C-alpha cells in the first residue's frame, strides 16, 4: 500500500475513530430491511421509520401477514416506498422458502434477494457477519474520487475494486464506515470543509476549490 493511501486512512481514522453503521438494527434481518430502505434516502429518515416498523414486524412472516398497502403506509415516509414494500415482501417470501427464514450469509446469496444490490450485500456481510467488504454509497464514491483514490468517471463497481486493491483487506469494513463519516460530516457534497481539511495538501479537488475561492475573493 502506498504512503498516500496510508496517510488518508490514518487521517480519517483520527477524525472519525468511532465511525460505524448508523442504521439501527438488532439482527441481520433488521439490518437487511434497513439497508434496503436506505437506497436514495438518509439513514436518519430510515431510523425514524424503523423505530416503529421493527416493533410491528419481527419476522419475515410478519411482513407477509399484512396486505401490501398496509406495509406501504408503514414506510411511506421513505423514497420509492411502493417499490421497496414490494421488494420486502418478495424478500421475506424467498428467505422463508430457501433459507428457513434466515438472512443468507454469503454475498452471492444476498445479491439474489429482491431489492438487494451489491452495496446492500456488502453492508450486510460486513456488519452482520464480520466479512470484510467495502460498500460504495454516494459518500464513499464522492470522497474516493475527490481524493484521487478512484477516477472521476469510474463506475461504482470500479471504485469498489480500486479501494479493495489499495486498502488492506482487514481494514475494508472500517474504511467503508470512516469514508462515509468523512463524506457525511466533513467532505460534504455541497459545501465541503476544504479550508479546514487535514487532507487538503493531497486532495486534487480541494486544491481546485480553494483556488476558485481565492480568485472569486480577489476579483
Q: Could you explain the architecture of this structure?
A:
This protein has 219 residues and is mostly helical. The chain has a single domain, classed as Hypothetical protein, domain 2 (Endonuclease III, domain 1), CATH 1.10.340.30. Helices cover 61% and strands 0% of the residues. The longest helix is centred in the middle third of the chain and has 19 residues, at 81-99.
Question: Can you tag this structure with a few keywords?
Answer:
iron-sulfur, DNA-binding, 219 residues, nuclease, class I DNA-(apurinic or apyrimidinic site) endonuclease activity, elongated, 4Fe-4S, mainly alpha, Endonuclease III, domain 1
Mean pLDDT: 93
The biggest sheet, with number of strands, parallel, antiparallel or mixed sense and barrel status, is: none
Q: Which radius of gyration do the C-alpha atoms yield?
A: 19 Å
**Estimated helix fraction:** 55-70%
Overall strand count:
0
Report the total helices. Answer: 12
Structural class: mainly alpha
**CATH level-1 class:** Mainly Alpha
CATH superfamily: Hypothetical protein, domain 2
Shape descriptor reads elongated
Tally of individual domains: 1
Q: Per CATH, which architecture?
A: Orthogonal Bundle
User: In angstroms, what separates the terminal alpha carbons?
Assistant: 42 Å
